[in-house]
Amino acid sequence: MSLNEFDIIQQYFSQLTRPRNDVITGIGDDCALLVPEAGKILAVSTDTLVAGRHFLADVDPASLGHKCLAVNLSDLAAMGAEPCWVSLALTLPEVDENWLENFAQGFAQLAEKHNLQLVGGDTTSGPLAITLTVHGQVEADAVLTRNGARPGDLICVTGRLGRAALTLNQLLNGAAVTEKARMALERPEPRVAVGIALQGLATACIDISDGLMADLGHICLASKLKALVDTSAVPGPENTLDQETRLDLALTGGDDYELCFTFPEKHKDRLLQIAQQTEVSISVIGRMHEGQGIEIFDESGQMMEMPAQQGYMHFS
Ligand code: ADP
Ligand code: MG
Fold it and tell me: Is the entire prediction scored with pTM above 0.85?
């Protein structure tokens, strides 16, 4: 007999994540009842993943469970917030217990890592889509935003950029991909620890979901400044592609969920410390200046033309 939505919630979601002691009521009543820490502010973010648009419909459900949570945690990381609670709105075309089991397991594994409790949601039938709302907490004066960059600040990125886009291109072309390459696309690690370590130090921060040029562009716009980027310092995918393709992927590829942040030069020593403490590489790729927009340069300091397509957009 097929499960109804109450059975699905009961069987797969009601006990999925470890209880936190700041949750009075989680799944099971009309609202979740949560107790924020005194003096902290809430950081709240929602993301939707639609089959065929954000993920290939036949993707491994455990990876999907991981990724839908990772992209939301990445938004908390970008604000320097500590993850606390999440709700999950799930629209399913059919009840496939094997799919649900694996999806829930991928979700739970990442939630456990970040001490995040699933506290509610909604379960409906329709074309496969997943919407998550994550809630984090942060000290009001430590929160990271897009608009605080100052002239002279260093521009930094975590990890390597363009790896997810490279894997996606290869999969779409029917090419074989290594396990490591597949992980870059399907199991991004949200940079939560880096975001928290940057509290009170970074002047602006964003997570790179649409591509470096697009997302750094948001920092420029919000901070009313110009970014000068040394493209030879931008860490692209580690492989044997030609230089031009690597750079294009690194500048415009989406879905990496690394952080891009601005950092006062006088605290430069702290960057190495943060990289060591979080075990995430950090590269300095440029500097903020008066002005607007982004200018990119090659290793000899020659200005380069900006890539034509700077990031993914849904309605263009
Ligand atoms: P209501 O009809 O009052 O909105 P629902 O029947 O949708 O309640 O859900 C019952 C309970 O299960 C609620 O606490 C809701 O937050 C939770 N819930 C529903 N779907 C999910 C889900 N996919 N994941 C986690 N919790 C869920
Ligand atoms: Mg409901």
Answer: yes
